[in-house]
Write a structure and sequence with these properties.
β1, α1 (16-26) and β2 form a beta-alpha-beta unit. By secondary structure, the protein is α/β, with parallel strands linked by helices. α1 (16-26) runs parallel beside α7 (200-208) and α12 (421-438) packs across α13 (460-470). The longest helix has 18 residues, at 421-438. The protein contains 14 helices and 24 strands. It has helices at 16-26, 45-48, 53-56, 103-113, 120-130, 157-168, 200-208, 261-271, 277-283, 316-319, 323-336, 421-438, 460-470, 522-537; strands at residues 2-12, 33-36, 66-67, 80-81, 131-133, 147-149, 184-187, 192-193, 196-197, 214-217, 220-230, 233-243, 246-258, 274-275, 289-290, 302-309, 348-352, 363-368, 384-391, 399-401, 412-414, 449-452, 471-473, 505-507. The two termini are 32 Å apart. The strands form seven sheets. Strands 1, 2, 10, 11, 12, 13 and 24 form a seven-stranded mixed beta sheet that branches. The chain is globular.
């Protein structure tokens, strides 16, 4: 084993959170910081062209290529489960949508942790700190930060019609989803800069990479955390990892911070002997610290993709299904960084309620001017649009567990989608609402015809079963190292994100969320990293 050196702080994972942490912790030139990343550099062309997510997801160059176990709630299907394996992590392959969630999400976190610093009013300044919003500074937005937020560079007649139809059924129009109340329908703001993806590596890591006190090691996969016992108790003394055909040990003097994400962080903890003792013994990993919540509490947003064939409107299906159309699309992007190649995967969004009893919007729509059978398939050769809807606050809970004692084997991912009656009820109601929007007057001139799930599904049970056939992840796994109060036996970290019972070790990524945010999870992860860095630097 070779010595990689001694560092004040070691950050594991150069994804969304890790890039923020590396930037903030290395800002003081007196801090020696090591950033370890299993993937490579973010120099693949398709990372930076917004539509390139199509070539980054399920590509071993940029994606861990995980799959879920067969899901009973999805009628026995297994899903691809994309996670970024490259500098910038999932911010290099995601949908680029800038979304914070709702004020109530953070009030709930404060209640679950007993720590008011997680309230909306206290996390809003952290969102604003890193933000560079196209409209400049305001009560709700920041400017001059690293995280660029822009309007999208194109619109579509069919999406405008959907927005008008939503208004006709009581979903008001909005121009900002990020003021704490995201109810309404409008175009998403995106993390782009002049039509180019703006990932966490560009935003946070590139400005810090020239600092002599920051060491970045790519192509290096962590085998385990090294835990020692001293007079103070258990302490994380460093990290053992493999890279370049060699095994390394890096010593952490102050803290090691896990930022490997909702799949990677519990996986590394479990291979380090930190997790549910019974499961660790079952897979042949020596138990270092019994912490039953590690890998539990997995939550994700399941999107239910309804698609509709239409007439009389331009959609991407027709534009991209001819050589001339593709040439025009490519030329427009090459000259102006606009047009379909600058598209986020979803352009139009809506937040609303599945029924009147909901105290806040519990549904999110991602609406697209295209259709296809499933991700990775070619677009249909006729005009159509897709209206995906997800339950923002699912009650189903899954888990991430290592399968054996091979530190580099993929873990077993079991989201347990649609396994509660409440989730099945919301799924059915969301499909019914989609039909109501599509039947509104604003869309009738396009003569929409439901292709998926199909008009033959009518009852609540039929619609819930149909949701299992067409539902797929929208790539928002969280919660597998959740924070909580001292009396919560399933909490992995405290409200300062310190791992229970082990000094010098924190987790700072989407895995610490006790409950999933009401929307896309990338920017809340940046906020979590900002808060963790502040806590670390304040001692």
């Amino acid at each position: 084993m070779e010595a990689a050196g001694q560092f004040d702080y070691i950050v594991i994972g150069a994804g969304t959170a890790g890039c923020v942490l590396a930037n903030r912790l290395s800002k003081n030139p007196g801090h020696r910081v090591l950033l370890i990343e299993a993937g490579g550099k973010d120099d693949y062309m398709w990372i930076h062209i917004p539509v390139g997510y199509l070539y980054c997801i399920n590509n071993p160059r940029t994606d861990w290529m995980f799959r879920t176990e067969a899901e009973a709630g999805l009628n026995g299907r297994s899903l691809i489960y994309p996670r970024g394996k490259v500098l910038g992590g999932s911010s290099s392959i995601n949908g680029m949508i800038y979304m914070r969630g709702q004020e109530g999400d953070y009030q709930h976190w404060a209640k679950l942790t007993g720590d008011d610093s997680w309230c909306w009013d206290n996390v809003l300044p952290l969102f604003k700190k890193s933000e560079d919003h196209y409209n400049g500074s305001s009560e709700f937005h920041g400017s001059g930060g690293e995280w660029r937020v822009e309007k999208q560079r194109l619109s579509w007649e069919i999406l405008d019609a959907f927005r008008n139809a939503a208004a006709e059924v009581g979903i008001p129009k909005t121009d900002d989803f990020n003021r704490g109340d995201n109810e309404g329908c409008g175009y998403f703001d995106v993390n782009q800069k002049r039509g180019v993806r703006w990932n966490a590596a560009k935003a946070f890591l590139k400005p810090a990479a020239t600092r002599s006190n920051l060491t970045i090691m790519t192509g290096c996969q962590v085998r385990r955390l090294c835990i020692v016992n001293d007079e103070q108790g258990k302490r994380c003394s460093g990290v053992e990892f493999v890279g370049g055909g060699r095994t390394w040990f890096a010593e952490s003097v102050k803290e090691t911070v896990l930022a490997a994400g909702a799949i990677g962080s519990p996986q590394i903890l479990q291979h380090s002997g930190i997790g549910d003792a019974g499961h660790l013994q079952h897979v042949g990993v020596p138990v270092v610290h019994d912490l039953p919540g590690v890998g539990a509490n997995l939550q994700d947003h399941l999107q239910i993709r309804s698609s509709f064939k239409i007439n009389g409107a331009k959609t991407l299906n027709k534009m991209a299904n001819s050589l001339l159309g593709k040439a025009r699309i490519g030329l427009e992007y090459a000259l102006f960084q606009s047009g379909p190649m600058s598209m986020a995967p979803s352009q139009l969004g809506a937040f609303t309620r599945s029924d009147a009893s909901q105290v806040a919007p519990n549904l999110q729509y991602h609406v697209q001017p295209l259709s296809l059978e499933k991700f990775g398939d070619p677009l249909h050769d006729f005009p159509a649009f897709t209206a995906s809807v997800c339950n923002l606050r699912p009650t189903s809970r899954g888990h991430v567990r290592i399968a054996d004692n091979d530190a580099f084997a993929a873990p077993k991912i079991v989201p347990n989608y649609l396994t509660t009656q409440e989730d099945r009820k919301v799924a059915a109601a969301s499909l019914t609402l989609t039909r109501k929007i599509v039947a509104a007057p604003a869309l009738q001139k396009y003569r929409p015809e439901e292709m998926k799930p199909g008009a033959q599904f009518i009852t609540e049970e039929e619609l819930a079963n149909a949701a299992g056939d067409i539902g797929t992840t929208i790539f928002h796994p969280v919660g597998t190292c959740k924070m909580g109060r001292m009396d919560d036996k399933m909490a992995v970290v405290d409200s300062a994100l310190r791992v229970r019972g082990i000094a010098g070790l924190r987790v700072a990524d989407a895995s610490v969320m006790p409950t999933i945010t009401s929307g896309n999870t990338n920017s809340p992860t940046i906020m979590i990293a900002e808060k963790a860095a502040k806590s670390i630097l304040e001692g």
